[in-house]
């Protein structure tokens, strides 16, 4: 299973007994619901560390699909993905260049 090291906050919710956040992972773009520790404050688009040693995360509650997001969270997801890709532009340019080479080879082989 793929693990995310960091995530960008898409939304937060606070009730009397807990704080929660919806985030998108910065490595694999996994959408997650998290329970946050009571003593942390996060805002939308904050980058937070994830994992068992994170001071921010009490517990990961669920992985989500894009359909689970509200319209506001969809908007924040667009901004987050743009931010993640531009921060790692070389990684994604290399990925797409390599994929287009593979696709060209596959199309060439189809004609044989």
What would you note in describing this structure?
This protein is α+β, with helices and mostly antiparallel strands. It has one domain (6-110): Nucleic acid-binding proteins (OB fold (Dihydrolipoamide Acetyltransferase, E2P), Beta Barrel), CATH 2.40.50. The chain is built from two helices and five strands. It has a five-stranded antiparallel beta sheet with strand order 4-1-2-3-5. A hairpin with a 5-residue loop joins β2 (19-25) and β3. The longest helix has 22 residues, at 89-110. It is elongated.
Write the layout of secondary structure elements.
Elements: E1 6-14, E2 19-25, E3 31-36, E4 47-49, E5 57-64, H1 71-87, H2 89-110
Antiparallel strand pairs: 1-2, 1-4, 2-3, 3-5
Spatial sequence of strands, sheet with the most strands? 4-1-2-3-5
- For this structure, what is the CATH homologous superfamily? Nucleic acid-binding proteins
What's the CATH C level? Mainly Beta
How many β-strand runs? 5
Features:
5 strands; 5-stranded antiparallel β-sheet; 112 residues; 35% helix; 2 helices; OB fold (Dihydrolipoamide Acetyltransferase, E2P); alpha+beta
Summarize the structure.
It is built from 2 helices and 5 strands, in the order βββββαα. The chain has about 110 residues and is an alpha+beta fold.
